[in-house]
Write a structure and sequence with these properties.
The chain is of the alpha+beta class. It is built from six helices and nine strands; from the N terminus they run H-H-H-H-E-E-E-E-E-H-H-E-E-E-E. The protein has two domains: 36 residues, no CATH class; 184 residues, Roll (3-methyladenine DNA Glycosylase, Chain A), CATH 3.10.300.10. Strands 1, 2, 3, 4, 5, 6, 7, 8 and 9 form a nine-stranded antiparallel sheet that branches. The longest helix has 19 residues. The chain binds a DNA duplex through strand 3, strand 4 and helix 6.
DNA sequence: CGGCAGATTATCT
DNA sequence: GATAATCTGCCGC
């Protein structure tokens, strides 16, 4: 029984050690417990609507923390609590793709709030953004890290790593785990197949603000937000910054 | 654990 | 031709 269950898990067919079996059983139990958590039941009728995204980008980035991001694809539900975001502002933000106006690449950023903007970076990775503010403005929130909740096994297969903390702790990893590419740009985040719903309630004390990561222009603006003490945030941090206290 | 090289392509100079 | 909102593996301590 256990052996056949294990055989269905990737990389666990054939002979494996008792320690490996216990590890897989442990992650399966953790998955079941996570889905039973009343805080993270699926409530698609509570999906955040465009008016949530049609606000100041920093505020949207901050308010997205603790929310549950849900994607339904190929009959599978993938979801996770958003634990780290970055704001890319419409004005005076040289790091934003929209800084020099609309191009073919960044066109989705000028859509109304509540639309997806997915772009390719370094030729190999994709990054997921939610467009913010009014149509034509050109701003978005980058989703940098997620705490996996539903479809964790599916994410393990897509990512090729086992530890839950490493499935979605970075923008490129999220795109792989959730199966998102540039083909998903212009889609809505307010529909049944892709939406964000209420999750954990957070206070100001739960949120850390720092400069953004991986950029060279406007690198000092405090526009990165993450949940304090979350083991699921991307490990990278701006040069010279200490971990949160 | 920290640092660094390499992968690989759309976009703009 | 240079650059980029990144990830992984390999190296040395």
């Amino acid at each position: 029984m256990v052996a056949s269950l294990l055989a269905e898990r990737e990389g666990m067919s054939g002979e494996c050690t008792d320690e490996q079996r216990m590890g897989v059983l442990k992650t399966m139990m953790e998955d079941c417990m996570a889905i039973d958590d009343p805080l993270i039941k699926l409530h698609p009728w509570l999906a955040l609507q465009p008016d949530f995204y049609n606000r100041a980008t920093q505020q949207v980035a901050r308010d997205l923390l603790g929310k549950l991001m849900v994607r339904c694809v190929d009959g599978v539900v993938l979801s996770g609590i958003i634990v780290e975001t970055e704001a890319y502002l419409p004005e005076g933000d040289a790091a934003s793709h929209a800084y020099r106006g609309a191009t073919q690449r960044n066109a989705a950023m000028f859509e109304p709030g509540g639309v997806l903007y997915v772009y390719m970076i370094y030729g190999i990775h994709h990054c997921l953004n939610f467009v913010t503010e009014e149509c034509g403005v050109g701003s978005a929130v980058l989703i940098r890290a997620v705490e996996p909740v539903h479809g964790i096994d599916q994410m393990r297969m897509r990512r090729g790593v086992q530890k839950a903390e490493q499935l979605c702790n970075g923008p490129g990893k999220i795109a792989i785990a959730f199966g998102l590419t540039t083909a998903n740009s212009f889609a809505t985040v307010c529909g049944p197949d892709m939406y964000v719903q209420p999750g954990k309630d957070l206070g100001e004390a739960d949120i850390i603000t720092t400069p953004r990561i991986g950029i060279t222009k406007a690198a000092n603006l405090p526009l990165r937000f993450y949940i304090k003490n979350s083991p699921f945030v991307s490990k990278a941090k701006p040069a010279g910054e200490k971990p949160e206290q």
